[in-house]
Amino acid sequence: MTRIGLLSDTHACWDEKYLEYFEPCDEIWHAGDIGSVDVAEKLAAFRPFRAVYGNIDGQELRKLFPQVNRFTVDGAEVLIKHIGGYPGKYDPSIIGSLMARPPKLFISGHSHILKVKYDKTLDMLHINPGAAGMSGFHKVRTLVRFVINQGAFSDLEVIELADK
After folding, report:
1. Whole-prediction pTM
2. Which range marks the domain in which residue 157 is found?
3. Do 16 and 43 contact (CB within 8 A), yes or no?
4. Helix (H, G, I), strand (E, B) or coil at 36
5. Cβ neighbours of 154 (radius 10 Å)
6. For the Calcineurin-like phosphoesterase domain, which residue ranges apply (predicted)?
């Protein structure tokens, strides 16, 4: 069993509540638009950290993190890409990879819109954790926690942070 803390679109915003809410997590994943190396370093110092860079991330973050991250955790193959779309409207930059070899979990960010949707066609769960930072049009800042156990997902929680 692996407990995951997931966030996206921090846009260089640091909030101590990230650590408070990710305390029970085994790993922290960031779906891009980190915004600063400082945010990435603080999260990585707290728990094992996986991330992708987003469209606002500069060269320093692009050297540290890939654009697409595909890996397996506790029996579930995961694919993370910042600009990825969602079931029924995947971004052209990733649709070929998803169709050729769908992971069990596809995570994207970018839209600042919290979305959890199951893609029946690809037998794949999609999660966009919304935006945890202050920049953007979103009204509520969000994080997501969930559990992966032998390839199955459970106990998904949406955490709302203070309004912007």
Report:
1. 0.96
2. 2-161
3. no
4. coil
5. 9
6. 3-148
Check: CB of residue 34 under 8 Å from CB of residue 40: yes
Q: How far apart are CA 108 and CA 103, in angstroms?
A: 13
Yes or no: say if 99 and 122 are a contact pair by the CB < 8 Å rule: yes
**Cα distances (Å, whole numbers) of residue 68 to 34, 52, 106, 119, 137:** 14, 6, 11, 20, 25
Token couple for 105:
């979990």
pLDDT in tens, 67-79: 999 999 999 999 9
Residue 101 vs residues 16, 79, 115, 158: alpha-carbon distances, Å: 37, 10, 22, 28
For residue 63, how many other CB atoms are within 10 A of its CB? 9
**Averaged over 6-26, what is the pLDDT?**
97
* Residue 65 per-residue DSSP state: S
Smallest CA-to-CA distance from 133 within 107, 109, 155, 117 is with 109
CA 57 to chain centre: 15
Q: Could you give the number of structural domains in the chain?
A: 1
